[in-house]
Structures are given as C-alpha cells and as structure tokens.
Amino acid sequence: MSAEGAPAARADDAAPEVRVPRDANIVELAAGWASAAGSRVKTTAELALAEARLAVLSLGLMLILAIFAAVFVLGAWGFLMAGAVTALLEVGVSIWISLAGLGALHLLFAWLLLRWMARLSIHLELPETRRQLRGAPGPENSDGIG
Fold first, then answer.
1. What are the tens digits of pLDDT across the range 19-63?
2. In terms of domains, do 50 and 89 share one?
3. Model pTM greater than 0.90?
C-alpha cells in the first residue's frame, strides 16, 4: 500500500507501452487503428449473436419446462379436487352437489382473477409514456412545463 492508502501499482497493472516505429506514417497508423477497431466490432457482434442464440434456446427450454410444470400442477389439482369430492361424499353430500359446489367455487375464483387481470391491463397501454410522447401536460403540473 502507498502512503495515501491506495494499493501500490504493480508493474503488470500499468498501461501497455505503445511503441510507434519512427518511419511509420499517419496513414499506416490510421489503417492499423481501423483494423483493430473493425476486429473489435466483429468480435463484439459475434458475442452478441452467440448470446442471442443462447437466450432464444433458454427461452424455448423455459417454455417447455413451464408446460411440464403446468401439467403436473393440473394433475395435482385434479387429485386434490377428487379428494375433496370423496371427503364430501363421506360426510353424506351428494356427488352432484359436491361437484356443483366445487365448480361454482372455481368459477368464482376465475371471475375474481379475470377482474384483477383487467385492472392490471391498464399498465400495458403505457399511459404515462404515451402522454410524454404526445407532449400533453401531466396530472402533477397542468401548465405543460417539465
């Protein structure tokens, strides 16, 4: 550590020394720089393409796994409902009443979830972004000044 508390610079941490030949002209130097920049752009593009392919493959696999998970969840839900119907039959409730009651309960929950989804869908329209793009004044200041 140096006296100021910062770690001392090591020899291999220093910036590489660039040596320019005395007989090099500006055109050769520019061509070398352009070649290095082009190589960097090409390498970066190849990396972006490889990462994009990996992302697409990962997304596809995630969708397949989500489908399998949904199948297993639905199977488990079916077993739970079969158990509920069996339990209701054991206490003397008719099979038709137990099925109708569970069906009605499911319809109620589905309706509540659809209402919740409808309330959330307003965010899909990006209302504040659209307002900003139109240049309309916002609710916080109606004079139109940022």
1. 666 666 888 888 888 999 999 989 998 999 999 999 999 999 999
2. yes
3. no
CB-hemisphere CA count at 13 Å for 115? 6
The mean-pLDDT minimum among 21-25, 97-101, 124-128, 133-137 falls in 21-25
Q: How many whole angstroms separate alpha carbon 106 and alpha carbon 110?
A: 6
Alpha-carbon distance of 76 to 82, in angstroms, equals 10
- 43-63 in b/e burial notation, b at 16+ Cβ within 10 A? eeeeeeeeeeeeeeeeeeeee
146 is a domain residue: no
Distance between CA atoms of residues 91 and 105, nearest Å? 19
Report the amino acid identity of residue 62: M
Q: Is residue 11 part of a domain?
A: no
Are residue 88 and residue 39 in the same domain, yes or no? yes
Q: Are 82 and 68 in contact (CB under 8 A)?
A: no
Specify whether 129 is located in the same domain as 69.
Answer: no
Q: What is the pLDDT of residue 13?
A: 57
Identify whether residues 76 and 32 lie together within a single domain.
Answer: yes
- Contact, 89 vs 95, CB < 8 A? yes
